[in-house]
Design a protein that fits this description.
- The structure is a single chain.
- The chain is built from 15 helices and 13 strands.
- By secondary structure, the protein is an alpha/beta fold.
- The protein has three domains: about 40 residues, Up-down Bundle (Monooxygenase); about 120 residues, no CATH class; about 150 residues, Alpha-Beta Horseshoe (Leucine-rich repeat, LRR (right-handed beta-alpha superhelix)), CATH 3.80.10.
- The chain is elongated, with a radius of gyration of 27 Å.
């Protein structure tokens, strides 16, 4: 077989021709299975080979129900696709659109034009888990800036009636996205707003999500009135992260005990809350109150006596060796499995005062523990 290119002639061996014929002689189902095993971005490339391959390739996306577009491969997406997406972010739109109604979960934390992403996501009505880190959503033209796109980055959440998990990082409430969250108030159970700029109007909308089980609102302007309203309306909450809430006080935090299902709580760097608000949280399994300068021994000691507690981050608070002693006494009574998962983080100065404790207990205060949050939001 001879192929002409310019003034050159290339002769394709009969073996190569036979191999091509062998591939093309395969039935559609076999080719589709082969295409499914290619790196994701190559599924787009093979559409260019011929019309038949294009038709088959376009029907080979039903197996992709979870797409994590991260800066680095995490084992759930091949590294070649991650690299190609970083070089050409528009690939996200093509890949997401191919998955269409098959897609259940989408995570985007790699540079991408927000307009492209908005259009792509809106063709996936069966999404139930959506994570977007807007800190990595960026403009690819010289005529606009990131702030402009934060205002213009809108998703029509009313279409996603199956959405139960939404996580946004470094978002701005100037977008209309949060206003459409209320349309999903029956299905949405997990909402994470990390380091988002949210005005009072949008914050109020959150308190209407009556089926919430996990809520993270950090670095925001939430106040006591907002928290009281949340507690009154959202009784199913099990996991709550209100880190860096500088306006919250005991006036509202004392009512956290009314959340009968509350298992994990983070009030990290919420500096006006005292340990009085912790005393009656008997059901807590995890607590992060690091960098809360008004947290002292009495409330924490009482909390430690709660048999459910397995994680306590009191780094950079005003607790003393009294708290560590109480934790040590509790640890001694635990079974072997419970001892393995129990973790506590205290200041270096407090730790150095506890050298008389059994050596096996000291590793519980690992250096990394002080940077940990409650597990669901780690």
């Amino acid at each position: 077989m001879e192929l002409q290119h310019g003034s050159f002639y290339f002769e394709k061996s009969s073996v190569e021709a036979e191999e091509i014929d062998t591939i093309n002689s395969l039935p559609d189902d076999c080719l589709r299975e082969i295409f499914r095993r290619l790196p994701i971005y190559q599924r787009l490339e093979i559409e260019k080979v011929c019309k038949r391959w294009k038709n088959i390739a376009e029907t080979s996306w039903h197996d992709l129900k979870h797409l994590p577009f991260l800066r680095f491969s995490n084992g759930k997406m091949d590294s070649k696709t991650i690299n190609e997406v970083q070089k050409n972010p528009n690939l996200i739109k093509k890949i997401v659109k191919r998955c269409g109604h098959f897609l259940k979960e989408l995570k985007v934390a790699t540079p991408c034009d927000p307009d492209v992403l908005s259009k792509a996501v809106n063709v996936c009505p069966n999404l139930n888990k959506l994570t977007i880190d807007v800190g990595n959503i960026e403009c690819r033209t010289s005529r606009c800036n990131k702030k402009y796109f934060l205002r213009k980055f809108d998703l029509n959440l009313e279409r996603f009636m199956k959405l139960n998990y939404l996580s946004l990082k470094r978002f701005s409430s100037e977008s209309n996205l949060l206003k459409s969250i209320v349309a999903n108030q029956k299905s949405l159970t997990h909402l994470s707003l990390f380091y988002c700029k949210i005005d009072s109007e949008n914050l109020e909308l959150i308190t209407r999500l009556i089926n919430l089980e996990a809520l993270q609102v950090t670095h925001s302007i939430i106040d006591d009135n907002w928290l009281r309203k949340l507690i009154d309306n959202c009784r199913k909450i099990r996991h709550l992260d209100l880190s860096h809430s500088t306006f919250l006080t005991d006036s509202s935090a004392l009512h956290l005990e009314e959340l009968r299902n509350l298992e994990s709580l983070s009030i990290q760097a919420s500096r006006k809350i005292t340990d009085r608000s912790l005393m009656n949280l008997y059901r807590l399994r995890e607590l992060n109150c690091s960098h809360c300068e008004r947290i002292q021994d009495p409330g924490v000691v009482k909390l430690i006596r709660n048999t459910n507690l397995t994680f306590l981050n009191v780094f950079n608070t005003r607790i003393t060796t009294r708290t560590v002693t109480e934790a040590y006494v509790k640890w001694l009574t635990m079974g072997e499995k419970a001892k393995e998962i129990f973790r506590i983080a205290v200041c270096v100065s407090v730790q150095s005062s506890c050298r008389n404790f059994r050596e096996a207990f000291l590793p519980l205060d690992r250096e990394t523990t002080r940077y940990e949050n409650i597990s669901i939001f780690n």
